[in-house]
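Dear Dr. H.,

I hope your travels went smoothly. While you were away I took the liberty of generating a structure for the chain from your last submission, since the lab meeting agenda had it listed for discussion. I wanted you to have the full record in hand beforehand rather than looking at slides cold. The sequence, exactly as received, is reproduced here:
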Amino acid sequence: MHTFFNKLYMASLITSVFSLPAVNAQAGDYASFAGNAKAEKFISRMVKEHDFDHSELKQLFNSTYLRDDIIKAMTRPAEGKPWYDYRPIFLTESRINGGIAFWKKHAALLADIEKKYGVDSSVVIAIVGVETRYGNNTGSYRVIDALSTLAFGYPPRGKFFSKELEQFLILTREEKVDIRKAKGSYAGAMGLGQFIPSSYREYAVDYDGDKRRDLWTSMGDILGSVANYLHVHGWELHGPVAYQAKAGKTPPKSLLDEGYKPKRTLEYFLTRDLSLDTQLDKKTPAAIISLKQKSGPEYWLTMKNFYVITRYNRSPLYAMAVFQLSQEIKAGFQKQAQKGK
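The corresponding predicted structure, in token form, is as follows:
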């Protein structure tokens, strides 16, 4: 969803374009995978295990290209930025107003999806907003080029992307997607919610009932699939997500290293010189994270729903951006509704 970071967060940055395996059959600025040993092995496996046609796959990879710009993009994910640089990318006036307008346009559909899956509309909208600016930037790379480049030309994640390429070929057959025309991110994430192929196959839903799961043009399928993903991972409707905490002293590193899955109670943290400006059941499961501000660390106590967002993308920065954007969109939507706009 930019969910590819669901499994890719903090991918290795060490690979150089100059260490890529040799390919031939130049076409424009890029080289095709014609005759590439890894591609040939992959083709044979797809024929044997999934009954694909050998000659058709050969033709496909003869016109599939290794993109060195994709390799370069993999080495500079936004999640590598500190919070004070990351937050302004997503918490902008245009993205907030865009989310409010998106909600108003699809209000009835979102209400139905919230009722069916038990996932807050504001969070579904925020994910689409963070991922693709509500569909305004769903990616310009051919998915087949992106996944093949990373499967056969990016050794640190080659095994992972080979599996995603396998899933993509199966997906195109199942959903009748044009394999040569499908566009997505530099890591092969697709549609308004940026689902990687394995997540597309596992979590996407045919909400509009047309016998296809279309994450590019069917708004029902798109929003229903994002909601279903969060639902399957345990989202609690209207449940707490995260609260900024005041720290009397620096929390122990051991607590900060425990991860985002709530393992302790809120009461535990409140007895360790942390405080909140809100009233929650002290037995609420919680975790603690630290976000880097220019003035020093900012501490947040996070709950189950925050952890669920990190299943969509494992970066805590991503999850916090989604949460804060959702809050701003919700406040703006409710304000306009009260004014009757």
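Two observations you may find useful: Confidence is low (pLDDT under 50) at residues 2-27. The chain has 16 helices and ten strands.

With kind regards,
E. W.
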